[in-house]
Amino acid sequence: MIRHLAGKVGGALVSLLFVVALGFLLFRVIPGDPVVAMTRGRPVTGDQLAELRARLGVDKPLTEQFADYLAAAVRGDFGTSYVYSRPVLELIGERLWPTVLLTGTSTVLAVVIGLWLGIRGAWRRGSRSDRISTGLALAQWAMPTFWLGMLLSLATGDLFPSGGMRYPDTPSDFVSQAVDVAHHMVLPCLTMIAVVYAQYLLVMRSSLLEEMHADYLTTARAKGLRDDLVRRRHAVPNALLPTVTLVFLHLGLVVSGAITVETVFSWPGLGLLTYEALTGPDLPLLQGTFVVLAGAVIAMNVVADLLYRVLDPRVRAS
Amino acid sequence: MTAIAWQRRRAAARATWREFASQRGGLVGLIGLAVITVLAVLAPLVTDASGLDVTRVTARPWEPPSASHWLGTDHNGRSVLLLTWWGTRISLVVGLAATVLSVLIGTVVGIAAAHFGGWVSAVLMRFTDFFLVLPSLVLAIALSTVLPRGLGTIVLAIGVTSWPATARLVRAQTLAVEARPFIERARALGGGHGHVIGRHVLPAVLPLVFVNTTLTVASAIVAESTLSFLGLGDPTRVSWGSLLHAANMHGAVSQRAWWFLVPPGLGVVCVVLAFTLCGRALETVLNPRLKGER
Amino acid sequence: MSSLLELRDLSVHYRTARGEVTAVRSVSLGLAAGQTLGLAGESGCGKSTVAMSVLRLLPRTARVEGQVLLDGEDVRGMSWGRLRAVRWAAASVVFQGAMHALNPVHRVGEQIAEPMRLHGVTGSVSALLDQVELPARAARAYPHELSGGQKQRVMIAMALACEPRLVVADEPTTALDVVVQAQVLDVLKRLVSERGIGLVMISHDLSVLASTCDRLAVMRHGQVVEEGPAREVITSPTHPHTQALAAAFPTVGDPASRQVTPSEGAGGPVLLRASDLHVSFGATKAVAGVDLEVRAGEIVALVGQSGSGKTTLARTLLGLRKPTSGRVLFEGRELPRSASGLRAYRRQVQLVLQDPTSALNPRHSVYEAVAEGLRIHRVDGDESARVAEALSQAELRPPELFFPSLPHELSGGQRQRVVIAGALALGPRLLVADEPVASLDASVRGEILALLLRLRRELGLAALVITHDLGLAWTIADRVAVMYRGELVEQGTVEQVLLSPRHDYTRTLLAAVPHAQRSTRPNWTSSP
Lengths: 318, 294, 528
Known about the structure:
The complex is a heterotrimer.
Chain A: H1 2-29, H2 34-38, H3 46-56, H4 62-74, H5 88-123, H6 128-142, H7 145-156, H8 174-211, H9 215-222, H10 227-249, H11 251-265, H12 270-279, H13 283-311, H14 313-317
Helix pairs in contact in A: 1-4, 1-13, 5-6, 5-8, 5-11, 6-8, 7-8, 7-11, 8-10, 8-11, 9-10, 10-13, 11-12, 12-13
Chain B: H1 2-21, H2 24-46, H3 80-115, H4 118-133, H5 136-146, H6 151-159, H7 163-178, H8 181-188, H9 193-229, H10 240-249, H11 258-286, H12 288-291
Chain C: E1 3-16, E2 19-32, E3 36-40, H1 47-54, E4 62-70, E5 73-74, H2 80-86, E6 91-94, H3 98-101, H4 108-119, H5 125-131, H6 148-160, E7 166-170, H7 178-195, E8 198-203, H8 206-212, E9 215-220, E10 223-229, H9 230-235, H10 240-248, E11 270-281, E12 284-295, E13 299-303, H11 310-317, E14 325-330, E15 333-334, H12 339-346, E16 349-352, H13 356-359, H14 366-376, H15 383-393, H16 399-402, H17 412-424, E17 430-434, H18 442-459, E18 462-467, H19 470-476, E19 479-484, E20 487-493, H20 494-499, H21 504-512
Parallel strand pairs in C: 3-8, 3-9, 6-7, 7-8, 13-18, 13-19, 16-17, 17-18
Antiparallel strand pairs in C: 1-2, 1-4, 4-5, 9-10, 11-12, 11-14, 14-15, 19-20
């Protein structure tokens, strides 16, 4: 177990290193001259360009740039934002918690709703409620997240605040602040749940359907178990295994959801920061958010793998 | 001999079609796709492209739907109906082109990773797993930010970030096929890599790839709309994503201009749903695992 | 005689896309407490459907007619609650394939205890495990941590958990090795006689049933074609189908079932020779120093349990796997290592696999399957004439009729003939046949074996037949090599090895073969 853990963490670290290197490739090598890419469509003088080049260190040869970049990245230094003129890591730190709050809440709710509806659908396959819930899930899956967000905000009118995380004039005590944040979070959270739960529903449903004909369910019925016990004790624990992996594999979906939802609702998180960085374009900032978002997904996958080991005795032993 | 083979293939195709047609969802999806494709192709023939030009508009901006403009006008006074209609073309083209690129990469990597074994497989698998975990939208955003704006960029950005799922699927299917004894029989008969892949693996994997393609088109179209919505699309062309980008930038929500918001999004939903329904129906027809082993 | 189980005029129909299919046709059977009844038949004859109908476990697509009386009460008329109470407490099932019948994510102890808790029976899991000769700590194991035989014992312990009066065992030993099979059957027999349980045992293997059951019923196409005391049914079958089934499981030592004369395959030059062959996967040695030869026109049986390394040895002889050390010689020349050299070698030595259903690509027609080798080797001449010739050599006549058929349109025996024809098309000198009849129905086994013998007689084709079945070796082989843990522990002529075995392992194997008629058993028990 310990050895496996070490192996997984080691593998994740290698992946993380790849991400950092990919960040360099994307933002320093592919654009040719990053400074030109960043100042495209803006009047800049030659002096300003030269100064920017020196600040980013892009006037040095690529190998030297890479070495500098790597050394800085290991220290957690992703340079200075071009738009904000502040360290990238500091900006990311500020924006991290709103994103964790939003994506965490909506993922947990989406998983609960999705799995519950998926189990119900598979067990009563072909019934009216199954057809409706599957059809609805497919339709929601087809919807672009941001469009749904805009529609929701259009439909609810002034019921919920359409942007930001809190009003500036809210009293500073904890309860008022919490209520205010929750009020702001309703629409973005609903939007994210609506799109993400569909995925979980479909995965859970098909994975339970695959277990439906398993021989051990016949054994359980032969023992005299009630239908709901057969489902709860025998079918669902087995069907959950592939679902867990897929839920975590689809975390990328949550991340992309966060980017568009935060953009639509001006939720001050990493997604909005990414959007601000790409409109700049503020390459150091975009690089930073890229590495952090990718790194977070990699870390969550390690968690998923460990969770899978706890859940599945077959993997646990090997 | 070939006559018999062709006859059999035709019969098999007919049987597949009958099975597909028996699924209402798939049929609805297919009809939807046909209608949308015809509309997209006919756009330059039945509509006047000059209506897309901001400098030649005659209507007022933010006009609600009326007899002259069935779906109202945008912030420049252009007809939303016309814009949405033309947007179909770019959305479909980008979706299809990105899918072809993605499925091609995914199939080659997947088959190679499963067939050759050894270090080739290990490296390819590690590579695939790495990209599978990366949030593809973030990668696509990065790519389309640093490359010059244009259709090619957006196709490339979606294509090279969405292949790992296909690669994994194809690899799993190839492994399943190669574990079957008929592969060993082919090897014992003296067949080499080319023979095994060409005669046994590809024919068994292609139906699945085909299903996967229809589902990938769906997600590629969503990806296109998302990237364009973030302002990373081709600025010179109208797509559903770029329309929604404009709607968001110019405050369609606060203007309560639902007529500008609903049509492009509904376009995405219809096309994506049509592809998904087709894909799922095809999956039940072609995927032997869902149909039960013979 | 009070009946524990009585089937009265039972018929079961399944609704399918092609209309209703009848699986069981007016079957009437009875079983008294303490009695054992064997239900024999080939796959698809309806015997498992009968088993499932006892506890009403059939899928919803099934329509049942007639009566299933369990202790005089009709199972079909029970309410759900009553049915749940009866399940496992009055009658339990040992399912086919313990691998899948146990839930992979629960410990086996929990799974054994589950019905006890449910039906309010007191008892201890470790006592049950003890009865099936498993240690108490096995309760903490997950199914995947146990071997096939151990899982089957867990299934038996589970079936006994609520002390039912009736146990239905559906192919309880099918996936197991002969030695393990014998152990599991012993456990089952002992428990049944100790506890006075009524047992219905279902199998395709008459010899298994003969050694366990008092009475036998033989099913075919959903009907019982013969029923009577086990001994009578085995020794003097009246129905032709029973005769075919009985013949498919020959008794070692019975001269009537031996189909080769000792002189037939002797004296040819050595075709294939392995010397000091080793094959390892990492640390495990699958083949550990094997010396074996096959002469021209000779049939050699390579016998061993699963995991003995016999399949790996076969693959290495075919050049499909590289040996770790040692040599394989064909006609005195070492196997080529280059791809083209190996390809040329393949025209001399061909493979016949165990399961013809999976050995044929389901998308390829018979013609394509047989012509595949010809195309790979770019054999000149009239392709369709060669294909036709190979098919008629494999007794698929007229061959043109089979050209467009797809594998799923053929019967199991026909499929195996297509596989053999595909090998014959290349005109090989040696066939390596890996369990060539193990997955075939009993009644067609004999035909395929006869085909191998005829090919040897007419084409001089040598064969290395890999099998776990000593009866098969007795029927067709000239020589036998016994493999155990990667080594050949004994080899010699069939008569030497099977009638007077010298190695302990060979004796264990022979003792494990289920026997109905002790009288014809060879007299080797007292040999050194």
